[in-house]
Amino acid sequence: ETGVTQSPTHLIKTRGQQVTLRCSSQSGHNTVSWYQQALGQGPQFIFQYYREEENGRGNFPPRFSGLQFPNYSSELNVNALELDDSALYLCASSLTGWNEAFFGQGTRLTVV
Amino acid sequence: TQLLEQSPQFLSIQEGENLTVYCNSSSVFSSLQWYRQEPGEGPVLLVTVVTGGEVKKLKRLTFQFGDARKDSSLHITAAQTGDTGLYLCAGRHNTDKLIFGTGTRLQVFP
Questions:
Q1: Average pLDDT value over all residues in chain A
Q2: Which single residue of A83, A100, B73, B105 has CA 20 to 30 Å from B31?
Q3: More confidently predicted of B2 and B108
Q4: Shortest CB distance from B97 goes to which of A40, A90, A97?
Q5: Inter-chain residue contact A41 with B6, CB threshold 8 Å
Q6: A73-A106-B74-B76 Cα dihedral, nearest 10 degrees
Q7: Residues B50-106: tens digit of each pLDDT
Q8: Nearest by CB: A40 against B41, B95, B105
Q9: Which residue of chain B is at minimal alpha-carbon distance from A59?
Q10: Which has the minimum average pLDDT: A28-32, B2-6, B85-89?
C-alpha cells in the first residue's frame, strides 16, 4: 500500500455534468500528478501540482482543472463531461517531480 | 504522438515460458522506469534505469536500458501466473514529468 488514497473509487456521471475527484498524497510529499488511463492503455499525463501551484500540463483541454491544498492533497475537476472522459483517473504523489511517484488505486469514471 | 511505444501490445503465454517486452522511442530519456499494474490498482514501480547500457535484475525479471537511452527491454524468465498484469514503461524526457508507454498486457496461464 502506497499511502496515496483516491476517492471515490467508482463514479457514474451523465454527459455534460461536472465531476470532482480527490487525492490524498503520501505524508511528506508535496508534488501530485494526475493521469488519465483509458482501458488497456498507458496513463496520459494531465497536470502536476507542486506546493499548491500548477507545475506542468499535458495535452488536455481547459475543462480539466485542478487544485492542491496546503496539506498537499489535491482535486481534479472536469467540466462538461464527454463520453470519451470515461477512464481510470490516477493520482501520484512524490517528494518532487524527479523522485519516485507512488500511485493511488485510481477512480474509475464512467460517463453515460 | 506517443513518445514511448511498447511491443507487443498483448502477450499470452504458459507458465514456465520466457518473454521479452520492448519499449522504444526516438527520443532520449534521462531515466526510464518499468511499472506493473493489476486490475483495479495503480501502477507499482518495479525498477528505474538511468545509465545507457544499464542492466538490472529483480529475481526473474531483467531490465535493460539501451546504450543511447532511447529504448529499454524487460525480460521475464520462467513466467508464473503471478506475473500477469499490465506492464508499463515510463520515462522523463527533458522535464520531471513522467511519460508512459502504450502498455503490454501479459496473461500467464497455468
A1: 94
A2: B105
A3: B108
A4: A97
A5: no
A6: 130
A7: 999 999 999 999 999 999 999 999 999 999 999 999 999 999 877 788 899 999 999
A8: B105
A9: B1
A10: B2-6
The rounded distance, in Å, linking the Cα atoms of B107 and B110 is 10
Which residues of chain A neighbour B100 with C-beta distances below 8 Å? 35, 42-45
pLDDT attached to residue B46:
96
Probe site for chain B from A103, A108, A109 (most B CB atoms < 10 A): A103
Interval A24-51 mean pLDDT: 93
> Which range (A39-43, A97-101, B81-85) has the least confidence?
A97-101
From B15's Cα to the closest Cα of chain A, the distance in A is 22
Interface membership of A35 toward B (CB under 8 Å): yes
Cell of B95: 522535464
Burial class (CB in 10 A: 0-12, 13-18, 19+), A5: middle
Residue A25 burial (C-beta neighbours within 10 Å; 0-12, 13-18, 19+): buried
Q: What would the grid cell of residue B106 be? A: 501479459
User: What's the residue count for chain A?
Assistant: 112
User: Within 13 Å of residue A53, how many CA atoms lie on the same side as its CB?
Assistant: 4
Strands B71-76 and B61-65: what pairing? antiparallel
Q: Tell me, yes or no, if A95 comes closer than 8 A to chain B by beta carbon.
A: no
